[in-house]
Every structure is written in C-alpha cells, then in structure tokens.
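Practice problem: Phage protein
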Amino acid sequence: MGWFAVWWIESFCVIGSPPVETEPMVFTPEYAEFLVNCYALDRHGRRLFDRVFLSRPKGSNKSGLAGLIALFESLAPCRFDHWAEAGESYMFLGRTYRYQAGEPVGRLIQGSRVALAANSEDQTGNVYDVIYVNCTDGPLAQLRGVGMDVGQTRIILPEECGGGEIRPATSGAASRDGGLQTWIELDESHLFQGRAKGMARTLIRNGSKRKRDAEPWVLETTTMYQPGLNSLAEDTYRTAWSIAEGKTKHDQRTLFDHRYAVLSVDDIADEKKLTHALMESHGSVALSKDGKDHLILPDGRITTVVPGTGRDEYGNSLATPGVEPGPSKYGWVDLDGPKNLILNAGTDPAEAIRYYLNSLTSAADAWVPESDIQTHLFGRELYDQAADARAVMDVWKQVIKPDEEITLGFDGSVSDDSTALVGCRVRDGLLFLVKLLAKPDGAENAHWTVDRDAFDGAVRYMMEHYNVVGMFADTAFWEPYIAAWEQDYEGQLRVSPRGNRGKIRFPMNGFQRDVYDTLVTMETNFKYEWKPVARHAEPIRQQIALLADPRLVDHFRNARRREKRFGYLVFKETPNSPNKIDAMMAGLLAYAARNKYLADGEEEEVLYRPIRVYG
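Answer key — structure tokens:
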C-alpha cells in the first residue's frame, strides 16, 4: 500500500514548510522507500509494523514528513480492504489512481483520531503547521466545503473521509481519552524525558486499545539522542539492540530506520572526509550540486544515476545490496550549511556528530569513545546480510578459520549478568563473540539461569576445532568448570596469566593491576588505525578491532570508566543497570591472553612492592 501512499501525498499535498509551503510535494528516493516500508503488509493484508522509528540528522524534514503521513492517515483509504482486480481505480478531488491487478486496495478509517505529541507546544507545531497549511492552502483545502473544520489547535475531519480529528496531544488529554487513537506521532523523541516520556507511553498504551479494524500504529521521529538522559529515543535504541542481541524474543513489529555516518572527532576538521560523512548521513535529502540523483556504494564511492534508469553506469541501483541513496535532485539540504557550522570554531564536535552525522556520541565517562568503536568495526556488511538472530550468532565462523591462532576470554555469571565467551585473532587483534547468554527481558527473566553446560560445550568445541593458544577466564561462579578446562587442555595452551597459578584462571578482582594494564593497552590501540593483517604475516601487536556483532559492540559501548588509586577500571553505568558489559570483559581477557602470547609466552616474574597495611 506504500506506493499508493506515495501517489496520494504527491497528488494532494504541498510541502507545508517555509520557504516553500505551497509547492507540491515530491519524494526523494529514500523517503519514498521509507513510506513503502511503513505500509508493508503480510499476505493477509495486515500491517507488518505497529511501531515505526525514523532517525535522521537535523534539518532532514522529519516533522514535515510526519505531517504528510498524518494527512494520509486521516483522509485517505489507508487500511487494507482487498486485493485489486484488473480495472479497479480510486478517484479523489479530480485525480484517478488505477490499481494493478493484485495490488492492495485500501479503505477509510472510521473516526480517525490522529495524535501529535512532542516535548513542547512549539515542537508539536512543527508537525501541525504542515497539516494546517495543507488544509488551508493546498489541494486538500477543497474539503472545507464538505465539512472539514480547520482550527489553530485541531482539525475536524469530513464524514466523507471517515470523520474524526487531528489534534496535538497533551499529557492530560492522553490520560483521559480512553485510547481511541488510530495514529500517533512522537516528534523528536530524543527530547522526551520525564513527563513528556510518560505522555508518550500513555499514548502508545491507549493506541493498543483501539479496535483492530483501525490497526493503530506509532511513528517516532528523532535525531540521535544524547547518552545518559534516559530519553524515549534512547529507550527505543536499547530495544533495537536487545532484539539484535537476542534478549528480546517476541516479535516487536518494529521498523527501525536509522541513517548515520561514522567520523572520528580527530577527522572532523578534514573537509573532504566531513563532506563525505555528511553525504552518508543525509542521503537523498542532500541537494545534489549537478541536478542529478546519486548512489553511495559499499566501498564509499559516490556514483551518478543515469536519468530514467534508476541505475548508475556500473549497473548499481538502490536494490543492490549495500548501496545507499546519495545526494538527490529532489533534496533540500545544502551540505555547505551544516559543514560550515561544524567547522566553526565555537561548535562542540560531539554535538556536531550527534546533530549532523546522526551518530551516537559517548557518555562523559565512557571507556572508549563511540567514534573509536565505530572506526574499529570489521564485517558490518556480514551482519547486515544476516537473515535473523541465529544467523548473527554464526557470522564469526565466516571470518575465523580453524587453523588461525586465536585466544579466548570467558566472563561468567549465574542468573543476573550475561555470560560471554569471546575470541581474539592473534595476528590482528580482531575480537569476535563466540557465545553470549543474557538474562531475557520481561516475564521470561523471573527464574532464568545461565545454561552452564552450553558454555562448557562451547569452550570444548573451540578447543577441539580451533587453534586456541591461550585462554583466560574470570573464576567467579565457574571454578569447577575452569578447573576441568585446565586439566583437559593444559597441554594445548601456551601462556598463563601469572606464573604457575594455572593456565586459565584469571580472578579479575585479585588481578586488578593486570586488568588496568590491559585496559590501557586496549584504549591506546583503539587510537591506531586498524587494518586486517594477511593470514601468514607477522602479527601486529598494536592492533585491535571488533567483529561488528551488535551484541559485542553494545557491551563495549556500555563500559564506564571509574578512577581508582592505581589508575582506573571499568564497570556498568550503575550496579543494577540492564546495560551489560560482560562480553567486553571477556574480550579484555582474550586480549590479555593475546598480549601474553605475543610476548613469546615467556612467564614474566611478578614483582611485588611492599606496602604497610593499617588495621
């Protein structure tokens, strides 16, 4: 039904935002694709998505797009009725849409209740003003002659379009109206905190009470959130990561559409790199300088679409895997504007990255900055192509070969924290997640405990099928298993944490200086550019990277630095935080084993400095 939505909006809607309020709306390729995805149906004609999340840089007209979708939801046949037969058509305000056989035909919602929610009245106005202009100065203004009542604070819809209303939402109304919303817009959800966030939650709950014939859904639009403010947008991102990690098992019926670019703070002053990053983050909302449409290829090249073909000279199109939309003749953002703002001496680089590259910045106490994490990810495309959560778990097997030297790190729990087994490729420091079990969200977590036998099997599988030269494991809760692993695989392992204390045992609470030394080494190596090392080349010690498993990345992202007398250690943001770091800690142990091995496996003498202890 999405292509019908594109036609309807382009036929009857104007842009509605200054300085081109009354110009007809024409979709960029990217926003047309987004709208098609919003209205995806299953084979029975039911909507696939109840929650749609759109994250784009500042200036991408997210609010304007939301206003146009609100009009389609209010005045058009936007819910499935039947599959078209040859010759069927739809007529409205003098225009005709002719259906293809088998195309979905829509029906009007009876009594539409469209709610527009934002953090403030001014923010709500960004969406409502677009709707208001369309209903007073665009083609849809004709409906005022058949009962549409357009006011400054609400619009009453004509009965011939199903009736109902469009109204900005307030916290009081959200709690009183009993749940009649058919469509809800949450605009700039990175600003939804406290009371505004509570209002949004109420609206979402109320929407679920509406009769299913309306198939209510929620559109959440935002720019990247600021970490640590506990905004609605941050919650939505966390849910998406939980799904990717496998913690959330049930179908969320969520379309998550986030466009961003990666650029380190160190590179932000490089005008060429910055321009390319802005093209990546803005896509086809960026106005092309040559009046043509462009594509961004997986290798970063930007090519020109041959007019009338949808393809570049190499045959690539938006249907080609990994190809993204680039600057467009229909775009409106002149990238020189944000580029000059970013390069202004008074601009905070972290804010620039968040607002204009739509990329996550780090919390003030983050161990490794987000920009360093993003520039040290390998294999993104493999995870993008993974069909489901189980396929994500096995991607590392496409990268790590059985004969390659690797080390392992293990961090275990019983019932609360996650348990993780992480590997590290010796030659280039590539960390990869072998197995992670996390306490599930929701009711499933009440009596959950980690499957110890599954991890015992995973460790033994790695020892027997891969070239494991070292393994360090935190001893908490898992001593009997670690003792058995040491007994069975001692002859295979080439290094140990300290002297003759065992090949695997690494009690992190007791070895805090060793942990600190490894943290410093890893943090430093995240500053170096990472490049894959050829299989039979000499290892490069100052290398570190993460295989781009979203579960592993999230655990590194969650690590928070806490100062200690001897240096620092890393922890979760709070002791009870659901944002775990166990895979990061397992990665640290694997990396420590790699460091030991690259020091030729020689057992270093442990030196102790005498101190006086006062009782």
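Discussion: Residues 35 and 99 are 18 Å apart (CA to CA). Students who identified this feature from the tokens alone can consider the problem solved.
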